[in-house]
Amino acid sequence: MTLTFSSRREGSLVRLGVLALLLSLVTLSCEALAAGKQEITLDLLYGKESLTRPMPSALTWIPDGSGLLFLETIEEEKTEPANDAAVKDEDEEGDDEEETPKRRLVRIDASTGDRRVLLDDQEMEDLVKDARHAQERASGRAGFTGFQVSNDGTSLLLSRDGDLYLVDVTARSARRLTATKSKERHGLFSPDGRKISFSRDHDVFVIDLDRGLEVQLTQGGTEDLTWGESDWVYDEELDLHGGTFWSPDATRLALLRFDESPVPRIPLVDNAPTHPEVTWQRYPKAGDPNPIVSVWVVEVTGEKDPVRLQLPEDGEHYVARVGFLPDGSKALVHVLDRAQTTLRIFRCDPASGEAALLFEEKSPYWIDGHDDYRFLEKGGLVWTSGKSGFRHLSLHGADGKLVRALTSGPWMVDGIAGIDESKGTVYFTATKDTVLERHLYAVDLRGGDPRRITALGEDHSINMARGGTCYVDSHSSAIRPPVMDVYRATGEKLVSLGDSSKPLLDELAVREPEFLVVPGEGGKELPAYVVKPVDFDPQRRYPVLFYVYGGPLSQTVRNRWSGTRGLWHQMLANRGIVVFSIDNRASFGMGLESASVIRGNLGHHELEDLRHGARYLARQSWVDPDRLAVWGWSYGGTMAGYSILNGSDVFKVAVSVAPVTDWRNYDTIYTERYMGTPQDNEEGYASSSLVKAASKLEGKLLLSHGTADDNVHFQNALQLVKALTDAGKNFDFMAYPGGRHGIGGKKIQKQMFTAITAFLEEHLLTGNQDPSPGLHSSASGVATPSQRLSTVER
């Protein structure tokens, strides 16, 4: 059977592709599922023992591609929580409170696959201890936390108790670089590994490792005027972590200077102590003033003052990216206008600061600041753009002009993995064969059809060596946790790095999700999945829980491992609550043209697509359409709240965790990208507000929020609580003291999901006249093999 679905755009075909899972990795037989499988419980999900093995972390390729460095866990009994093995959905998973496991640093030879242990936790701790002054004591175990690897792979830069240390992994020696009362932050190796930049008291310094000389490069840094330090909103929404950028020849630094004085301050209150403590956060909310950001270049000798780059000041803008040309001759700055529909790349003279426009892109939709571009050593640029309505690759000359499109079609490029210039090949990940999975592809710089490298049936996350010779592939499916292997660019397997699966997982009562398509607006067909109990009985009528995220260009419907959350969904299904998820028309696989419909009114069209999912379910004989619920976290929490308030004809129960309850409360960059400013879109902000819709509540609502959430502030929950109370509505509310956006580790997550489970069972199962039997029933119904989607031939 071939399933396809198309958009309104003429000639545009979005394929829902293949789930041809290999027999060795796919479903267990129906009989095996029905007999002798272990019940999934919250005690099991959040117990001391992780359900999955920890995977290698901190993967770092040596720039010449000769080797790969990574951390591996030594003591399995002290592993991270199970959900750490999952691919997390948009900041939804919990904060990690677990003890850091003992690990060791390993190197893999990329030509032979040979592995060598370089250093373990205890050795690292001993080296740092020896490098301290005798009278000083560490505040905690050193270990492999907060480290960076030099480009040649021989040295590590560590931050401990506010000071910097250099560890030579070859000589097994450590050297203390700083010993001050102030904290050194944002340490960064120079490309040649002979210098280190860092910030102290909001100014930027450089240490010459050969001479042991420290040089201060900037002056006048304060809490509100910082050098080389990006602020919260740039970190969160532009992924611009840090504000210091080395030139390739290690002679200069490009620096961001943030003037935060115009940005409003938000109090984050800790009420746990007898006398509450307040932390102030600079946070620009929609329509607020942003930080004033300027870009400077300074020579690392410190003999000259920093030079300000003369970027145009023709309107409010964001500095989305900063870097240098491969030869270091020019600095490069990406400038994104506040509306985020025009991006300009400027080539700047480091000596004079003069800026010249290299490249400009305008989009009828929006433009995200991204790293999916590569400058070629021989000149030119490979760029990723969504202006066609789908993200695709194009080749540009050294002058910025378009040479040719490298990819096209009704599918999305996810990211550039690497480029092998010697072979003229670009490697990238995309949804070309199926929106359910990411795969690695290769395309010639001269043009031609892309060729797929990775195997269908799993989702693939790629970490490729510079030069495109080898790559690490972390691959998983909906019922198979991640496996990590090293491959040559040809697809030939070199060595295995780890398998996160444990035998216990094979003993759990798990049924493979059924992937399908649901008819949507204007002929669009929306990807969806259903999680049914292992003893599913088509003669019974089940309540259904919608799992939603729903944010622009996000996805919940993918054939990948979803960790503890996915297993919790399986637990609910086995208890009689079927779980259903559907990607709306603004999801990643549908493209930017489709997603643009949500601009100016977040929530409305997403809810309409949930309604399409509900209509599909209502046609199924095994669904009770009067018992539909919805739950989500973060943006998903917003959608769950929006759906129960504005879709009471469909949803009777909702669980909303850490939601934005009014988009006036959220930050400028994210919110205005889709909503514009409140000043220009008053009606859109009002119609998308949960607070203003509070009087519409007819069903059962559970609202949960962390009091120390610095992303979606706790005031969002409080505003909704007040509005619901003023409207005389009954609801359930749980505040988690000190909880951030992820709300705690295993202990708190167990309490929270116990409460959510009880809430759902109370309102979806209690009083049901024809209950689903669940795992403990004597019913003879046996799960049937899930329907698979066959290959779509292109």
Describe this protein's structure.
- By secondary structure, this protein is an alpha+beta fold.
- Among the domains are: 50-193, no CATH class; 212-362, Dipeptidylpeptidase IV, N-terminal domain (Methanol Dehydrogenase, Chain A, 8 Propeller); 516-764, Alpha/Beta hydrolase fold, catalytic domain (Rossmann fold, 3-Layer(aba) Sandwich), CATH 3.40.50.
- It has an eight-stranded mixed β-sheet, with helices on both faces.
- Mean pLDDT is 88; it is low at 1-34, 77-97 and 769-794.
The helix fraction, in percent, is: 10-25%
Average pLDDT metric: 88
CATH H-level superfamily of the domain at 516-764: Alpha/Beta hydrolase fold, catalytic domain
CATH class of the domain at 516-764: Alpha Beta
Query: What strand line-up does the widest sheet have?
Result: 38-39-41-40-42-43-44-45
- What is the overall silhouette? globular
Number of strands: 45
Q: Could you say what the CATH architecture of the domain at 516-764 is?
A: 3-Layer(aba) Sandwich
Instruction: Report the structural category.
Output: alpha+beta
Q: What is the CA-based Rg, rounded?
A: 27 Å
CATH fold title of the domain at 516-764: Rossmann fold
> Strand content of the residues, in percent?
25-35%
- Please, how many helices? 13
- Low-confidence spans: 1-34, 77-97, 769-794
Q: What's the end-to-end separation, in Å?
A: 14 Å
Topology:
Elements: E1 4-6, E2 13-15, H1 30-34, H2 42-45, E3 57-61, E4 67-73, E5 103-109, E6 115-120, H3 121-131, E7 147-149, E8 155-160, E9 163-168, E10 173-176, E11 184-189, E12 195-200, E13 203-208, E14 213-216, E15 225-227, H4 232-238, E16 244-246, E17 252-259, E18 265-270, E19 277-282, E20 292-299, E21 307-308, E22 317-324, E23 331-337, E24 342-348, E25 355-362, E26 373-375, E27 381-385, E28 392-396, E29 402-405, E30 413-420, E31 425-430, E32 439-444, E33 451-452, E34 459-464, E35 470-477, E36 480-488, E37 493-499, H5 503-506, E38 514-519, E39 525-531, E40 542-547, H6 563-574, E41 578-582, H7 592-595, H8 604-618, E42 623-633, H9 635-646, E43 653-657, H10 668-675, H11 682-688, E44 700-706, H12 715-726, E45 732-736, H13 746-764
